[in-house]
TrEMBL record, chain A:
Keywords: Cell cycle, Cell division, Septation. Transmembrane segments: none annotated. Belongs to the MinC family. Residues 11-88 form the Septum site-determining protein MinC N-terminal domain. It comes from the Bacteria. This is Probable septum site-determining protein MinC. The gene is minC. Residues 110-210 form the Septum formation inhibitor MinC C-terminal domain. Pfam families: MinC_C, MinC_N_1. Interacts with MinD and FtsZ. GO terms for biological process: cell morphogenesis; division septum assembly; regulation of cell septum assembly. NCBIfam families: minC.
UniProtKB/TrEMBL annotation, chain B:
InterPro entries: AAA_dom, MinD, MinD_FleN, P-loop_NTPase, ParA/MinD_ATPase. It comes from Fictibacillus solisalsi. The keyword Hydrolase does not apply. It holds the Pfam family AAA_31. NCBIfam families: minD_bact. Residues 3-157 form the AAA domain. This is Septum site-determining protein MinD. Keywords: ATP-binding, Cell cycle, Cell division, Nucleotide-binding, Septation. GO terms for biological process: division septum assembly; negative regulation of cell division. ATPase required for the correct placement of the division site. Cell division inhibitors MinC and MinD act in concert to form an inhibitor capable of blocking formation of the polar Z ring septums. Rapidly oscillates between the poles of the cell to destabilize FtsZ filaments that have formed before they mature into polar Z rings. ATP binds at K11, G12, G13, V14, G15, K16, T17, T18. One of its GO terms (cellular component) is cytoplasmic side of plasma membrane. GO terms for molecular function: ATP binding; ATP hydrolysis activity. Belongs to the ParA family. MinD subfamily.
Length: 226, 264
């Protein structure tokens, strides 16, 4: 009986105004957790588990869930047709994930000329000190900043971040790509201008626009990291 | 122990072979012991430009496949005691030689010669890899046209991956009147794109073609502008600091007056 009592506390269901929060104890074994989750969800809670669609946040505390384990929990919760997992919240990540996050957040500094046929691809932001010649390509999962002239192809937000920008001292690219969007250069560049410009996806027009670098802080305030 | 310099360009027809022949000849004129190596297997030309075609008995592939000794395949120049040519084979193709074998031959030649000038074939495939394998330095030849500059850029990128000094640049076939009128890329523009050190500018000179057809490198005739340019390049290779003669110098007296008066 004491065992059964303890089991009761491994899974706590809380209601908030945004939906349900499922608190999963992080000290018991995973088997106990699964067992209790099954029990709790199969109990009749009246309209709570049978009513309209409710979003669920699963909080796992200091327990690390493998993909297989979180899949199992997803499956159990998914048995209730009106429950929809919004997200998992956890206090812990693996070292590999942490390193990945660090890479995404860092600015890679590279000093070279990216020549025709060369591809420079980085994770996170790219700060290139040098030119990108025609036929050269630079890619970054974050933003791209070129201290030099950009005459080749630049692809920022290459893993899908549409908020990413491309800035260059001299902006004369053959092509600009941000996330899944491509913008070709005009067939002829006028002689002057194109200095210190920045490209971004405009939400209103849903295409890549180029503007003076000084307006970027208005369009992408999240670039600041103070 | 000499040094091996590869002459390359990426694009064909920009004047690699002409440049090789003339730099080799100019270095020989300065009394250096020089060996020219043609690596354009299957499409050899260097022997023709040097007027040595009829003396070929063995070639590069014969050396690689050990049908002869290296010194047996070397052809002594008609004009200089200190200039030799290792011709390419005409009946084989580029794949009959491997980069390691090239390396061995070049390092063997470096023992005996002050300069080994390697004439590279066009392209970035096997032939290029072979030519670059044994080289210590490289010279990239380009013409003042976009396609040639683009290819030179590609080649410089590939050369930077090799363990050798940063390549030097020769802009070949510059036509003064076109560059002045802005209808052609000018030398400064090319240097700013390629971002490597300029070692020479050679003007377009019909005497080069005439000389080539006679099997006599232009560097032998002292009066042509191209010849002077090639000799100057050779002097820069030898370490002398020779100022680059710019196109500006050739402006006449009247055009200078016009510039002063703001008429151009």
């Amino acid at each position: 009986m004491a065992m059964a009592q303890k089991l009761q506390h491994n899974v706590t269901i809380k209601g908030t105004k945004d939906g349900l929060v499922l608190l999963l104890d992080d000290l018991c074994s995973f088997e106990h957790l699964v067992e209790e989750l099954n029990d709790k969800l199969s109990d009749d809670h009246g309209q709570l588990l049978n009513g309209p669609l409710i979003s669920v946040i699963v909080k796992t505390g200091n327990r690390y869930l493998t993909d297989q384990q979180s899949g199992l929990i997803r499956e159990i919760i998914g048995q209730k047709k009106n429950l929809e997992i919004k997200r998992f919240e956890t206090n812990v990540i693996t070292v590999a994930e942490a390193e990945e996050m660090k890479k995404e957040a860092q600015i890679m500094r590279v000093s070279k000329v990216v020549r025709s046929g060369q591809v420079l691809s980085v994770q996170g932001d790219l700060l290139l000190i040098g030119d990108v010649n025609p036929g050269g390509t630079i890619m970054a999962t974050g933003n791209i900043f070129v201290l030099g002239s950009l005459k080749g192809i630049a692809h920022s937000g290459s893993s899908g971040n549409r908020e990413a920008v491309i800035a260059a001292s001299v902006m004369k690219p053959t092509q600009l790509r941000i996330a899944d969007m491509i913008n070709r250069a005009p067939d002829h560049y006028p002689e002057h201008g194109h200095e210190m410009e920045c490209a971004f996806i405009s939400d209103e027009e849903d295409q890549i626009l180029i503007d003076r670098i000084s307006i970027v802080h208005k369009i992408r305030p999240e670039l600041n990291r103070l | 122990m000499g040094e091996a310099i590869v002459i390359t360009s990426g694009k064909g027809g920009v004047g690699k072979t002409t440049t090789s022949a003339n730099i080799g000849t100019s270095l020989a004129l300065s009394g250096k012991k020089v060996c020219l190596v043609d690596t354009d297997i299957g499409l050899r030309n260097l022997d023709v430009l040097m007027g040595l075609e009829n003396r070929i008995i063995y070639d590069l592939v014969d050396v690689v496949e050990e049908r002869c000794k290296l010194h047996q395949a070397l052809i002594k120049d008609k004009r200089f005691e200190c200039l030799f040519l290792l011709p390419a084979a005409q009946t084989k193709d580029k794949s009959s030689v491997q980069p390691e074998q090239m390396k061995k031959i070049i390092s063997e030649l470096k023992q005996d010669y002050d300069y080994v000038i390697i004439d590279c074939p066009a392209g970035i495939e096997q032939g290029f890899k072979n030519a670059v394998a044994g080289a210590d330095k490289s010279i990239v030849v380009t013409n003042p046209e976009i396609s040639s500059v683009r290819d030179a850029d590609r080649i410089i990128g590939l050369l930077e991956q090799e363990e050798m000094e940063a390549p030097k640049l020769i802009v070949n076939r510059v036509r003064n009147h076109l560059a002045k009128s802005g209808d052609m890329l000018d030398v400064d523009e090319i240097v700013s794109i390629l971002a490597i050190e300029l070692i020479g500018v050679v003007v377009d000179d019909e005497n080069v073609i005439k000389a080539a057809n006679k099997g006599e490198p232009i560097a032998m005739s002292p009066n042509s502008k191209a010849s002077i340019a090639y000799r100057n390049i050779a002097r820069r290779i030898l370490g002398e600091s020779v100022p680059l003669s710019t196109i500006e110098e050739e402006k006449g007296f009247f055009s200078k007056i016009k510039t002063l008066l703001g008429m151009r």
